[in-house]
Amino acid sequence: MKTTQRSAREHNSAIKTAKHAAYGVLSDSNIPDEEKEQVFRTAIGASEVIDREAASLGLAGKPDLEALVRTVSANLAAKRPVQIMAPSCPDYKHDGSVYTFGGLGDDVSLLGTYQIEFAERFLPILDMHGIPYDLSVLTADIEIEDDFTLTVNNVRHEEALRRVRATISATGEYLEALITPQNGSKVRSAGFTDEFGDFSARQEQYEAHIKNAMENDAKFRKFVNEVHEGRSGLYERLYHRSSLSELLPRTIRTMAQYAALGDIARSRNAIITSHRTLNVPAYNNPKLALEKPCGTLIRVPVLNFDRRIY
Predict the structure, then answer these.
(1) Which CATH class is domain 81-304?
(2) Is 76 exposed, middle or buried (0-12, 13-18, 19+ CB in 10 A)?
């Protein structure tokens, strides 16, 4: 696991870079100078606490302070809550630690409980600094549109839809029972379909883009293949009758989901909270951008907590 502790020199350097990011955001804002100073202090203060408390928060590595400060500053300056996207899975069968699959329940999913567990540690820092937020635990209901998923979990589509809807409802109840938002903040549960509309169409665009990039970029092709090989243990449990090479489209499909969600988060100035997965880099990989950005791709702050789900 990556260390979550910076040296004093690393910390000072990261904070200096983060401050520049805040200055950049606030220089384009029309709010009064006194408000700019307050936004600056608030964004830096909260981000420093997150950085300092990374280990106790359960993060798997050092947070991206520059991206975090930029995002918080932009939302505070615009007087809107910081959106926090907490993607989750349907309630697949699990052993209390990781998914084992082979069944689909209708309660809070394993990853949903991990997301809420992390939110319980993370949100008080925003509360303490007076930062309003809109946390959404997002169940990937799009996964039940996949025939492989239905077959592996021994469920028909109509019943799967009912169970996933029940999971979304149960997650909302669990979330609201455990977390009391401050400063006008909100916590809620939703599915990808309700939150994003036709997410599948966007995902398909990214799938085509990934395939094209693999054909034309050897370095990127190597990256995708490494992710694919890293998922071999999961595939052995799920698709033991298929060869690893036959399952490459599954890896591309999953990577496309992460890239699409990262793009949406970027457009909304949102934070993503995520479990440990080989696909975390897909949120911010410039090679996955559908359109070449003008300058450097703006990074989405991803708070990667130290939990695996398979």
Answers:
(1) alpha beta
(2) buried
* Rounded-to-integer distance, Cα 129 and Cα 149, Å: 42
What's the distance, Cα to Cα, between the start and end of the chain in Å?
A: 16
The domain limits of the chain are 1-80, 81-304
pLDDT digits (tens, 9 = 90+) for 178-234: 999 999 999 999 999 999 998 999 999 999 999 999 999 999 999 999 999 999 989
CB-CB neighbours of 253 under 10 Å = 18
**Cα separation of 57 and 181, whole Å?**
18
Name the percent of the chain lying above pLDDT 90. Answer: 86
C-alpha 100/C-alpha 161 separation (Å) is 20
Query: Residue 156 CA to chain centroid, in angstroms?
Result: 28
Q: How many CA atoms lie within 13 A of 110 on its CB side?
A: 17
Per residue in 116-153, pLDDT (tens digit) is 999 999 999 999 999 999 999 999 999 999 999 999 99
Q: Cα(275)–Cα(135) distance, rounded to whole angstroms?
A: 16
Buried b (16+ CB within 10 A) or exposed e, 188-203: bbbbbbeebeebbebb
Instruction: State residue 1's pLDDT score.
Output: 47
